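Question (not urgent): is this output format expected?
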Amino acid sequence: MNETKKLYLSSKDKKLLGVCGGIAEYLGVDSTVIRLLWAGVTILSGFLPGILAYLLAALIMPPRPTN
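Got this back:
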């Protein structure tokens, strides 16, 4: 069967809550690239939208199952 990719918080590649690490694992790219992009967007948007988006993503994204 064709298994669907799922987005999870990263449990092994995290600096704060694992959002950027989880996105990087999902997309198959280096987490540093995602962190730099997120930091750039946060700075360019005036900080608050980027921070709120990060916190919202951390609340919505489930942790990776242990099995």
